[in-house]
Design a protein that fits this description.
The complex is a heterodimer of chains A (about 250) and B (about 220).
Chain A: H1 2-10, H2 14-46, H3 60-87, H4 90-122, H5 131-152, H6 156-182, H7 202-234, H8 239-249
Helix pairs in contact in A: 2-7, 3-4, 3-6, 3-7, 4-5, 4-7, 5-6
Chain B: H1 2-17, H2 19-39, H3 44-68, H4 72-76, H5 79-85, H6 92-119, H7 124-152, H8 159-185, H9 191-222
Helix pairs in contact in B: 1-6, 2-3, 2-6, 3-6, 3-7, 3-8, 6-7, 7-8, 7-9, 8-9
The chains are: A mainly alpha (about 250), B mainly alpha (about 220).
């Protein structure tokens, strides 16, 4: 168990994280590129068309990865918030700063792609009586709230902890919001796939799984990129960042 | 418990002495009901059909109005900091404040709801369900809202942000509240929704004080 302790201790050093994450960032970036390329080409060109929806179902290969990501990103935000509140680990605050814009963007894109998909399939851009649309919209508001709260509080440390608290309150409330919204459900088809049983034939689901994995890799890449940038910004007056600057840019 | 009683008495006195502040949210509520009635052309059918939903939305907005000032005065004159420094169960006085906020913004709304419901053309048999749903649901609204108010107490012009932070959390209360009133008024079932509202309130009363306490500590450190 001592390696956990050592890792925990090292996570306290932004410099260590910055240097250690360099290969991870590259790795996630490459994996995302390859997986998304394979999944998208496979899904758009080679997977069979749906017998009811024809080719319009193919938007699933963009829509589902984003929505899945939107929810997981909030879970991570809440987890980072909890770590910040309990152990006051600065890196958790950096992670929150990194996750919020990515999470908000995929949520917004998920809503948009859902609307574009809804138009040919249900004949409407937006359907209020559908639980998943509404709860994704609420999720977007939760992201925007965390973002706006950080902007509103001038002192960075307080802003971080306030956002952490809000994210944790959000985490507790999300299931309540989700189930109460689900209470209406009329129009939507059931969840597309679950861990236990596939609702789709494998040749349609496989590219989707590839794309979901690719989206997670892209998320990993973006969050690590944001975190490393934020670390540089926060540590800009330290010696090691100065040395880095001199080595890379000669100033 | 002494601290708790002391705080409740103090807040209550402050409320009575600043009667205009206390009445503002209710006046706002009556005003908004009037605006809705005018916007819907005073059409009794349309009003009756939408009354429950409209009323619940207005209750949520009214609550925001009273939450905004909930901690501000005590924050500015330093009372809040002293309350947080108390060693003996430091969040009891905070719970006292939250209780009085609910009395002013929640319980008072329950009391005037039959009157406003009548103005909104609700049928007499819908008025008791309305009051019951409000009684079960408004504690959750006040408690959740207090978390937002505590986070924003040190923020200048935090009022505009308060809506963004708290309104998404009110959605379950809005859903069950509206469904309860409509269901009971139509003679269908609605008690289940009332129980859900009550359950949410119990959960909020149990958990929110901790969140409010933590949020106030962050805000006080910031200010």
């Amino acid at each position: 168990m001592s390696w956990i302790k050592r890792l925990w201790h090292r996570l306290g050093s932004p410099r260590w994280f910055y240097e250690m994450m360099q290969p991870w960032q590259t790795g996630f970036g490459f994996a995302a590129l390859v997986l998304l390329l394979i999944g998208t080409v496979w899904g758009l060109a080679f997977a069979p068309a749906d017998y009811q929806q024809g080719n319009s179902f193919r938007i699933i290969y963009a829509h589902v990865p984003m929505v899945v990501l939107a929810q997981s990103a909030y879970m991570m935000l809440g987890a980072a918030g909890l770590v910040l509140l309990v152990w006051r680990m600065k890196l958790a605050d950096v992670a929150m700063v990194a996750i919020v814009p990515v999470g908000a963007t995929v949520t917004a894109l998920g809503l948009f792609s859902g609307a574009v998909w809804g138009r040919p399939t249900w004949g409407t851009w937006w359907e209020w009586t559908d639980a998943r649309l509404v709860s994704t919209l609420v999720l977007l508001f939760l992201y925007l709230g965390v973002y706006a709260l950080r902007e509103a509080i001038p002192r960075a440390e307080s802003a971080g902890r306030a956002c952490a608290l809000l994210a944790v309150v959000g985490l507790v409330n999300i299931p309540i919001i989700k189930y109460s919204v689900e209470w209406w459900t009329t129009l939507h088809q059931g969840a597309t796939f679950t861990v236990t049983k596939m609702a789709m034939p494998l040749e349609m689901a496989a590219p989707l799984i590839v794309n979901v994995l690719g989206a997670y890799c892209l998320f990993g890449y973006l969050v690590i990129l944001n975190m490393r940038t934020e670390i540089l910004r926060r540590e800009r007056d330290t010696q090691w960042v100065g040395a880095l600057r001199e080595a890379q840019h000669g100033i | 418990m002494g601290m708790f009683r002391h705080q409740v008495v103090r807040e209550w006195r402050l409320l009575l002495r600043a009667r205009a502040d206390a009445l503002n949210p209710i006046i706002f509520l009556v005003l908004c009901v009037t605006l809705f009635a005018i916007a819907l052309d005073g059409n009794p059918e349309a009003l009756r059909r939408h009354a429950a939903g409209v009323f619940w939305v207005l209750v949520l907005l009214t609550n925001l109005l009273s939450l905004d000032s909930m901690f501000r005065r005590d924050f500015e004159d330093g009372t809040l900091e002293q309350l947080l420094l108390l060693s003996e169960v430091p969040f009891l006085p905070i719970v006292g404040k939250m209780l009085v906020q609910w009395l002013a913004a929640g319980a008072l709304v329950v009391l005037v709801s039959p009157l406003l419901g009548t103005i909104l053309q609700m049928r007499p048999e819908a008025l008791v369900p309305l009051a019951l749903a409000l009684l079960a649901g408004t504690p959750a609204v006040s408690m959740l809202g207090a978390v937002g108010a505590a986070l924003l107490v040190g923020v200048r012009r935090g009022g505009a942000l308060l809506g963004l932070l708290t309104l998404p959390f009110y959605i379950p209360v809005l859903i069950f509240g509206t469904a309860a009133v409509n269901g009971l008024a139509d003679g269908g079932g609605g008690m289940a929704q009332i129980y859900w509202l009550a359950a949410m309130s119990v959960l909020a009363v149990t958990l929110a004080p901790f969140a409010v306490w933590a949020a106030l500590k962050i805000s006080v450190e910031n200010g």
